[in-house]
Design goal:
A hairpin with a 5-residue loop joins strand 15 and strand 16. The protein has helices at about 15-35, 50-55, 60-65, 85-95, 95-100, 140-155, 170-185, 195-200, 210-215, 230-245, 290-295, 310-315, 335-350, 365-375, 385-390, 410-420; strands spanning about 40, 45, 70, 75-80, 105-110, 125-135, 160-165, 250, 265-270, 280-285, 300-305, 330-335, 355-360, 380-385, 395-400, 405. An eight-stranded mixed sheet has the order 1-5-6-11-10-9-7-8. The chain has a five-stranded mixed sheet with strand order 13-12-14-15-16, sandwiched between helices. It is an alpha+beta fold. It contains 16 helices and 16 strands. The structure holds one RNA strand.
RNA sequence: GUGGGUGUAGUUCAAUGGCAGAGCACCGGAUUGUGGUUCCGGGCGUUGUGGGUUCGAGUCCCAUCAUCCACCCCA
């Protein structure tokens, strides 16, 4: 008999971990709501072309990491590798670009990339993100960053770093790419193979090559920041000013380059140092050219996305979000058939009032029942046996103190609620 | 896609090429109505899978799959 196995690079979120996932998602939703963002959900697959156009044909995500497939009629789709393009597609498709004004969206859901799995990297992974569409005001660049920082702080994370950069607009990029090519051209023959293609396709990627011999040529390379035109320079200065006013610490790192082609101006990344190689838990930036690139009216926008898996790793490394498993308030024990007839209505009544009550007829002896109550961490044991049947009362034992009292079954819900709610 | 490490019981790990074991967890019991501690009992597991070498393979070799780490990429 063949054993079925979960696909490579995927994982199950088991019940023991679900509370933690629900918790971080709840905090994100609450944080987003407090900034005026509303949830949008899009399909997990889209026309493959949407991602090819938006992320860039030459990007790794499109070239080798996208799950592409044809449906029964030969239409080419892709499992979404990221969340921004679908949101923008929906925005344009619903004619919101014609409506004008600002639109604040957040999303939560799985993304898919055919990558080699490693720590903090999966083939199906869960992202949260926000998109603010309809304004180029630098305040909103800062607001988007502030939202993410607020979220991480609300979770209690302390060891996080914000790195900030501006990649300028399309015009600045052209100038900068030329400057980089001029700078590296004398060493072109000595660069690694990857860098030779980077030289042609994405010169700025020459700056983060890890090959030691390539690193050596990097000293004195021109910085993007020196090639910003006046409006972009001013925009970046204002973003920093707003962050300062909100007391959000950051470091300017000219090496921050977003992986997807659609980013302009502000780019940022949030780093947690002790997560291993995949230490970026969130990243984002402005994408003023994307809406028009997918067929909408020219509209400025900014957003970010964060990864839940890495976020949970970061929480773990700081011993945060330790969630206690749910424990029954009362474990009912019935000895004998007559007692069982009484215990089931009582069980229904308690549960109907929202009290977590357990009962397990599988456990045979009284001792085994008590053990089960203890093993589940129940606060109380409610006992019905011959004595209780005769008296019409049930015995309620406090499993912490060991004290036991005889109570009227009708009073049980109130007693439990009053004793145990803080 | 590239490189390295690791795959043995539910789990954490043992086992010179020679009878596959232990702790924890789990289940049961210690004269059938009182838990936690203690004691006793309960394990044939396709040693990830498929080949090969050998009298004999968990152990050596090859392949494959998975996982971990790194490159790469990115959140």
């Amino acid at each position: 008999m063949m054993r079925y196995k979960i696909p490579r690079g995927t994982y199950d979120i088991l019940p023991k971990d679900s509370a933690k996932w629900q918790y971080v998602q709840r905090v994100f939703r609450e944080t987003a709501a407090s900034f005026g963002y509303e949830e949008i959900s899009t399909p997990i697959f889209e026309m493959a072309e949407l991602f090819e156009r938006s992320s860039g044909e030459s990007s790794d995500v499109v070239q080798k990491e996208m799950y592409r497939f044809e449906d029964q009629k030969g239409r080419v789709f892709a499992l979404r590798p990221e969340g921004t393009a679908p949101v923008v597609r929906s925005f344009v498709e619903n004619h919101l670009d014609r409506q004008g004004g600002r639109h604040k969206y957040y999303y939560i859901g799985p993304m898919f990339r055919y990558d080699r799995p490693q720590k903090g990297r999966y083939r199906q992974f869960y992202q949260y993100g926000i998109e603010l569409i309809g304004s180029n005001h630098p305040f909103f660049d800062a607001e988007v960053i502030a939202l993410e920082m607020r979220f991480l702080k609300a979770l209690g994370l302390r060891k996080i770093r914000l790195e900030l950069n501006s990649v300028g607009c399309a015009g600045c990029s052209v100038d900068y790419d030329k400057a980089l090519q001029d700078f590296f051209r004398p060493h072109l023959a000595e660069l690694c193979g990857d860098c030779q293609t980077r030289f042609e396709q994405k010169p700025r990627r020459l700056l983060d090559c890890k090959v030691p011999s390539c690193k050596a040529f990097r000293a004195g390379a021109p910085s993007q920041l020196d090639y910003l035109d006046e409006p972009c320079r001013e925009h970046f200065a204002q973003v920093q000013s707003y962050l300062d006013d909100m007391s959000i610490a950051y470091t300017v790192n000219p090496a921050i380059v977003r992986g997807l082609d659609y980013y302009t101006n502000t780019a940022f990344e949030i780093i947690v140092d002790d997560l291993g190689a995949q230490n970026s838990i969130a990243g984002g930036g402005r994408y003023n050219g994307l809406i028009s690139a997918v067929g909408g009216k020219e509209t400025p926008a900014i957003g970010f996305a964060g990864g839940f898996e890495r976020l949970l790793l970061a929480l773990e490394s700081e011993n945060l979000a330790l969630i206690e498993p749910q424990k029954p308030l009362v474990f009912l024990i019935a000895m004998g058939d007559a007692a069982q007839k009484l215990v089931l209505p009582l069980l229904s009544d308690l549960r109907g009032r929202g009290i977590y009550a357990e009962y397990n007829p599988e456990k045979g002896s009284f001792k085994a029942q008590m053990k089960a109550a203890d093993a589940m961490g129940a606060a109380y044991a409610g006992i019905i046996g011959e004595d209780e049947l005769a008296s019409g009362k049930i015995s309620l034992k406090d499993l912490t103190s060991g004290e036991q009292s005889s109570v009227d079954p009708r009073d049980l819900p109130h007693l439990l609620l009053n004793n145990c709610t803080p």
